What we know:
- The chain is an alpha/beta fold.
- Helix content is 40%, strand content 25%.
- The chain has eight helices and 14 strands.
- The strands form four sheets. It has a five-stranded parallel beta sheet, sandwiched between helices. Strands 8-9-10-11 form a four-stranded antiparallel beta sheet, covered by helices on one side. It has a three-stranded antiparallel beta sheet with strand order 12-14-13.
- Residues 8-9, 51, 53-54 line the site of calcium ion.
Amino acid sequence: MKLLLIEDVPPLAQLTQEALEAEGFTVDHAPGLEQAREILAVAAPDVIVLDLGLPDGDGLDLLHGLRQGGKGIPVLVVTARAGLNDRIDGLDRGADDYIVKPAAPAEIAARCRALLRRPGGLLGRRLQLGNLAFDTASRSVTAGGQPVPLARREVDVLEVLLRKLGQTVPRRVIEDAVYALDEAPGPNALEASISRLRRQLADAGAEVEIHTIRGIGYLIAPARTP
Ligand code: CA
């Protein structure tokens, strides 16, 4: 799951980013509104963590712009402004949740997961194909009820493929969902993840196959029975 963290205080941003990454989020960080807008122009995060007091403006303006543009990305506002009026103002302008600083990074991560679990959100669904099951809340994968040990990157790739079951998922879509903007994966990074994933799923007896659709991307499907 891709998360955009907008926070201008470096140590706080770093601490929060680390906590979110430990929870399985792929994090892009923007220290101000301008960088946040640049990132939003090229990436589509699943959730946004928004500080309000930023060096180049007010986070609420960004939120307002997003909602006016019809973007329904869930937004968790994190701010030092504890006044009730600010709180109501933030929610009126389209924040999905609100947390007052100082907020523990683990609490921020928990609130983000809660937003994604809402109806229509990304979490709280179990993705299933054959004997393979993916629990989107715990991000655990099982084959025939047995846990399949996968590295985070492979879990992310598998999730994208399972969410687009029955469709060929373009490489670019997978890369956008799996890598942060500053990661700049090498040309073979995705192939390497896919081949590890195939091997681990096969070793675990998962009845699925990941097909390469040449020049386009990848497709996950039930394994053909011999
Ligand atoms: Ca700030």
